[in-house]
Amino acid sequence: MEDFATALETFTAETEALNESRIHKGTVLKITPTHVVVDIGSKSEGLVPVAEVQDAEGNSRVQPGDEIDVMVQHGEAEEGYVALSYQKAQRIRVWEDIEKAYNDKTPMKGKVVERVKGGLSVDIGARAFLPGSQVDLKPVRNLDALKGQDLEVRVIKLNKKRGNIVVSRKQMLEEELGEKRGKTLEQLAEGAVMSGVVKNLTDYGAFVDLGGIDGLLHITDMSWGRLTHPRDLVNVGDEIHVKVLKYDKEKQRVSLGFKQLTPDPWLDAAQRYPVSAHVKGRVISITDYGAFVELEQGIEGLVHVSEMTWSKRTKHPSKIVNVGQQVETVVLNVNPQERRISLGLKQLEANPWETLHEKYPVGATVEGRVRNLTDFGAFIEIEDGIDGLVHVSNLSWTKRVKHPSEVLKKGDKVKTIVLGIDSDQRRLSLGVKQLQPDIWETFFSTRRVGDVLHGKVLRVASFGAFVEVADGVEGLCHNSEAADPHGTPIRLEPGQEFDFKIIKMNPDEKKVGLSIRAVGEEGSRQDVEAYKHPASSATATIGDLVEWKRAGNDQN
User: What Cα–Cα distance (Å) separates residue 383 from each residue in 311, 352, 354, 379?
Assistant: First the structure.
C-alpha cells in the first residue's frame, strides 16, 4: 500500500509538472539539426523546434547549458520526449513583464518597427501602438525618421484579451522635465552662473536649456566683440556656462549672458591703446566708409576711408585692405563710453602735403596728366596721390571757356604753373593760361581812350555787337554807338569790318567800349578844319566844301 501511495504521489506531481498552462524552467542539453533537447526536470526531457531559437540569420540564440523558459505543447514530439515551445513561453513571459510595467508604471525599452496610421508601431516584446501625440513634448513632423530607433516608453493602456497595448513617451519626458525644472528653479536667480545646453539658434541669439527652463542668450550678450551670427560662437548641443541677467517669474522668461563672465575689455581700453600708439589687428569687415579692425576679442577700431591715404582721391576701402588681412595702424582717438576707437593707416607715412611747397614752389612749371574734368575745372595729377585744380578761369586769357573739355581732354599731358598751395586743406591751384603773356594786359598798356582801331564784328546781342579789335581782345559797340555822323543807325552783322573808336576802358573787368559814331564825328571835325585851313588851294569856297561833302556822302 505504501508503494502504491508513493507511486500515485509521484504520478500526480509529474502530471502537474507537465501542465501546459505553466512556464517551465529548463536546461539546454544539446542542439541537433532539427531540435533543441531541454531537461525540464521530473525525469523528463523535451524537444523545442530549432527554428524557434534561431535569429533572422539562422544563428542559434541559445547554447548547451543555458537555462531557458519553455511551455509544454499538445502531443509528443518523439517517443520518450515531450513537445516543448520556446516562443510560447517567451510571449507569456513578455505579457507578464508588460502587465507588471503597466501596474508599476515603470518604463520599458522598445524599438520603432514602422510608421502606422496615427503614430508608430513599437516592439516591446509584443507590438505596441505609440500615438503621434505621445512621441515627444512637441509635435514631431517626420515620424518616419524614428524608424529603427530605440525608445523608452510607458504602457498607458493594456487589453490582454484583445492583445492591444498603447504606450507613451511624452508622459515620461514630462515627468523628467518637471523634475529638472524643480531643481533649476531652486538655483535660478539674477546673477547666478548656471550650465545649460544650446537648444536652438536664431539670427538674434541662442536658446539655452537650463534644465526644464529655456533662457535666451541674445547675440549682443554673447561676446564683447562683434558676431554676425550666434553660430560663430556656439552650436546646437554645446554645453556652456551662462550668467542669469534677468528672470521674470510671472512670464517665466530668462535672459542670459555669456560675455558677462569675463571683464569688459573697454574698461581700460584708453590705457592699453593710447593716442598715437602703433597697434596691429585683423581686418574683420569692410564698408563704403572704412574698415573695421579687431585689435583683440571685443575691441574693434574703425579706419575711416579718409584716414587710409593722404591722397584726396577717394578710393573704396576694399582697394586698400582685405578682410582677414593683418594691418598696422595708428590710434587717433579712443572713446570708451561709446566703445569706439578711431584708427589711421596714412599716419604711418609722411604727409606729402607738408613738404609740397618745397617740391613745387609757387610759380614753378609742372607737368601732369588730366585725371578728371568737371564743370568748374580740370584735375591734374602731378604725382601719385597729388592732384591740382586748374580752374576754368585759368585756362585761357582771351577765350571764354564754358567747360574745360573745350581746351583739355582726359588723359592729356599738360604743363601748368603752380598758383598756390594750401597744405592744411590739401589743395593745389594750377594755371594753364599763365604759361602765355596776358594779352589784355598788353592791350591796356598800349592803348588809350580815343584811339581808333579797325575791328571785325564777331557776334551780335540785343544791346549791341562784340567786336574783335586785337588778337583775343573783344570790345562792345553798344547799339547807341553804331550810327553814322548824322545819327542814322547802322545794322551790324557778324563778319562786317569797321573803324571803331575806343570810348571806354576798364582794365580790372577787361572791358572795352567802342563807337562808330565817334569815328564819324572825328571825321567831320577834320573836314571843317581842312576847310578853315586848306592845304592845297587858297581859293576854295563854301560851295566847294558842300560839293566835296556831298560827294563823300554819295560814296557811303
Answer: 10, 11, 15, 12
3-state secondary structure of 343: strand
Average pLDDT of the residues of the chain: 84
Cα(415)–Cα(432) distance, rounded to whole angstroms? 7
Confidence (pLDDT) at 524: 56
Please give the grid coordinates belonging to residue 244. Answer: 542669469
pLDDT top residue among 58 and 403: 403
CA angle centred on 463, ends 459 and 466, rounded to 5°: 30
**Residue 132, C-alpha cell as written in the block:** 503621434
pLDDT in tens, 145-188: 888 889 889 999 988 777 788 999 998 888 888 888 878 887 88
Residue 343: how many CA atoms within 13 Å on its side-chain side? 25
Alpha-carbon gap, residue 333 to 343, rounded angstroms: 7
Contact 298, 341 (CB under 8 A): no
Mean pLDDT of 239-267: 89
Arithmetic mean of pLDDT, 521-531: 58
The whole-angstrom separation of Cα 323 and Cα 478 is 68
- Domains delineated in the chain: 2-91 (2.40.50.140), 105-173 (2.40.50.140), 188-261 (2.40.50.140), 269-341 (2.40.50.140), 352-435 (2.40.50.140), 439-523 (2.40.50.140)
258-262 contacts at long range (C-beta below 8 A, 24 or more positions apart): 258/217, 258/221, 258/222, 258/223, 258/233, 259/221, 259/222, 259/223, 259/224, 259/298, 260/221, 261/193, 262/224
Distances (CA, A) of 480 to 26, 277, 459: 144, 75, 17
| Amino acid present at 518 | A
Distances (CA, A) of 478 to 374, 439, 491, 524: 34, 23, 11, 21
C-alpha angle 98/101/107, rounded to 5°?
Answer: 110
